[in-house]
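Ex. 9. Protein: D-xylulose reductase.
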Amino acid sequence: MIPESLDGNNNPSFVLRSINDLAFEDRPKPVLQSPHDVLLEIGPFVVKEPMVLGHEASGTVIEIGKKVTSLKKGDRVAMEPGVSCRRCSACKRGTYNLCKEMAFAATPPYDGTLARFYALPEDLCYKLPEHVSLQEGAMLEPLSVAVHMVRQAKVRHGDSVVIFGAGPIGLLCCAVARAYGPWKVIAVDIQKERLAFAREFAASATFEYSGGTAEESAARLIEDNGLGEGADVAIDASGAASSIRTAIHVLRMGGSFVQGGMPHADVPFPMVEACTKELTVRGSFRYGPKDYDTALGMVATGAVDVKRLITKTVAFEEAEKAFYEVKEGKVIKLLIAGPSQGT
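Predicted structure tokens for D-xylulose reductase:
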């Protein structure tokens, strides 16, 4: 139950107790663990996956550690929800997203951000300009995922880019890629409604996958979009085996492929095609240095309008209903207001 009135210590939280067992609990208010930490009162959350309890969020600073210098009480911030160890070889190389000791929100055993309060180091809090809303701030997490994927692909001006999957991450990849000045950005999906939105949002062309072999689908995609010898870049944001295989076949000789979508299991991969084309193949996992900064810059300058992906905002008390709406595919992005906020 959520208290009818909230005092300074109530911390209502939305908790996954077990499979399909969701409940509200009043958890202890976090205590700052480091003089570099800040305590945040959470604003909107983004619901992306049915089983993920809060890792896309923004909030307002209500308390700061003694050594915090870049933030003050009342600052509104976007939250990067993973704290790396800062000591391992991955962290020292500047690839902290690959840290094996990463404490990532809503990844067991670490609590997520679906609560009233959340403590985080100051360098993982990105101050929002006055004209950027908390709702937009909550969208910086998925946008940063897209920024990292497009950076892994090394998209350049004049490239042809094919993005498989027109869900939230795929749509944001379209928008980020377009900001780099490519010749074409083509969104691929199996749902007409998603493709229609992709065309309105950021894609310059779309392709509806309708079955057949990967080679056949790739050939149609190339022909329909005038890609000549093939696309320069293919990014998979779906995790679907058919998309992954088609992506390899749609690329030109020497093209680049990035896998960002997470498959449910190992998938067959056209390795001979990848080898004989001498493709550059990269994975993409979460985000790394400067990805959040870039995402914030894109939102602040209007290069990417993340508000268009927000289907609606619901009250914190309706969090369980919101998860089911996402599971049923009724929304693109759904925000949950913080416990002390209205909708």
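Check your answer against this statement. The mean pLDDT is 89.
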